[in-house]
Design a protein that fits this description.
alpha+beta, Outer membrane efflux proteins (OEP), 491 residues, 2 domains, elongated, 13 helices, two-stranded parallel sheet
């Protein structure tokens, strides 16, 4: 009995030491995958993304106002040190956007699944004793001596039928798919940051136009009041100017509201939840607009190669194929090898101690359950992945046509509404205003000139903003540098 207790304690000690060793083993990591470089040079306003690589956990930065170095321009509305550039906004989005952090956790979860698939099964250790009488049992003859046995079991079907290798292959494709999806999320957030940036810049430029319109109409109202008081201008003209001034002030209020809303949406990309009335951006809508879209077929082929969402769909097909192979492997029987040691002490039937050992295999017989359901599900998932890839390519074609048409239209509008037209309408407006002040120009002509100037300036500002938005959306749709430049962020 004492020997059995000692063996039992020995088995518990071995199990406990195995647990400690397992906890001390470092977690396995996914090997890095080599990716060839087949992409164009990164856009200058996306270069800051690569600086942020390799940061596993990025603290929320304090949005300290950066220093503005942009040259003054009619459409750079604020050159104070409180203004943000587009590059700085992209950096802040990549470091602080909660949606990007959510997408990054998908990569960590996929890597955890890979580690789980690569782990070996745990062995089973059994300690047993036989011929143990109950307390109080009366035995006439001499009882049999205690039988003590030790046995270790270890599954080996993961090695015999390559089940572990198939599971690791599927998990590896899942990690790469998660990385591609994260790269696509970065592409979308950079595009959204750029478009919102130019939305805010457009609203600021339109606010200047509205303020200038209110200022001009206020001056006209003052002149009209003096003319009515002197009897040289009819009172109806003063009322007409006052009505236009009220409408202009309403438009100014709407423009201010739009600007505040766009700024709040823009700061939300940085993960900011507070209100900062001093927040501002700086940029130039009137930059040279010489870029032209590439031919449709060339853009389509580049998008199929570069777009991370298309790459993710392709990786999903590879993962589904790996799942089909893994489920076929799981249909093979479960095999467990075991080895044991038994000790039979001396007693009435044995004159001396007797030691013995044994080995064996336990194999399940796949008569009924041959993993039919999971195999059928894996085949269906593979077909579904192929259909999703074809659907994504079809949608990509339509998306490229739309982005190409928008970019070409915006490019033509920037040349249709040229700076020369703005200069002419400004000169006409100023001449009419001086003529009205001198009393030689009718009020209706002055108001028409002011409306023409206001609408021309609005079209000029909107056409420039549409061009830059269309350009960034076009680059995003084509996938220029979308995956290659952010791969360091996702590995």
């Amino acid at each position: 009995m004492n020997r059995f207790v000692l063996l039992l304690l020995f088995g518990i000690a071995v199990s406990w030491s195995s647990l400690l060793v397992a906890q001390a083993v470092p977690a396995q990591t996914l090997p890095k995958r080599t990716t060839s470089n087949h992409y164009l040079q990164v856009h200058p306003q996306q270069q800051f993304a690569v600086v942020l690589a390799n940061a596993e956990s990025v603290p929320t930065p304090k949005l300290a106002p950066p220093t503005n170095t942009a040259p003054p321009h009619v459409f750079v509305q604020n050159n104070s040190p409180m203004a943000w550039t587009l590059d700085q906004a992209i950096v802040a989005t990549l470091t602080s956007d909660p949606k990007l952090r959510i997408g990054k956790e998908d990569i960590r979860q996929a890597k955890a699944e890979y580690i789980t698939s690569s782990l070996l099964p745990n062995p089973e250790f059994t300690v047993e004793g036989g011929a143990l009488p109950f307390r109080g049992t009366k035995i006439d003859d001499e009882p049999e001596p205690l039988e003590v046995g030790l046995q270790v079991e270890f599954p080996i079907d993961w090695f015999l039928f390559a089940k572990r290798k198939a599971a690791m292959n599927s998990a590896r494709w899942e990690v790469q798919q998660a990385q591609a999806e994260y790269a696509d999320l970065i592409r979308e957030r950079i595009t959204e940051t750029a478009t919102l940036f130019y939305d805010v810049l457009e609203a600021k430029a339109l606010l200047i136009v509205a303020q200038e319109d209110v200022e001009i109409l206020t001056r006209l109202e003052k002149i009209a009041k003096e003319g009515v008081a002197a009897g040289g201008i009819p009172a109806v003209e003063l009322k007409r100017i006052t009505l236009d001034l009220l409408q202009s002030r309403q438009e100014l209020l709407e423009t201010e509201k739009t600007l505040d809303v766009l700024k709040a949406q823009f700061r939300a990309l940085f993960g900011c939840t507070d209100y900062d009335p001093t927040f501002d951006i700086t940029g130039d809508l009137d930059a040279p607009t010489h870029a032209d879209p590439m031919p449709l077929e060339e853009a389509f082929e580049m998008a199929k190669q570069n777009r991370p969402d298309i790459r993710a769909l392709k990786l999903q097909v590879f993962k589904s194929r790996a799942d089909v192979h893994a489920e076929k492997r799981n249909a093979y029987p479960e095999v467990t090898a075991f080895a044991g040691y038994s000790r039979f002490p001396e007693g009435s039937t044995r004159e001396e101690n007797y030691n013995a050992w044994g080995i064996g295999l336990t194999v399940t017989v796949p008569v009924f359950d041959r993993n039919q359901g999971n195999r059928a599900r894996a085949r269906s998932a593979l077909a579904q992945s192929n259909h999703q890839l074809q659907s994504g390519i079809v949608d990509l074609r339509a998306e490229i046509v739309e982005a190409d048409r928008d970019f070409r239209t915006a490019h033509q509008q920037t040349h249709t509404i040229a700076e020369e037209e703005v200069r002419l309408t400004t000169e006409v407006r100023d001449i009419m205003l001086e003529g009205f002040r001198a009393g030689g120009c009718p009020l209706i002509d002055v108001l028409d000139a002011e409306r023409s100037y206001r609408e021309t300036m609005r079209l000029f500002v909107t056409s420039r903003a549409d061009y830059w938005r269309a350009m960034y959306i076009y680059n995003s749709v084509v996938g220029i540098n979308s995956y290659n430049d952010v791969r360091s962020l996702v590995h």
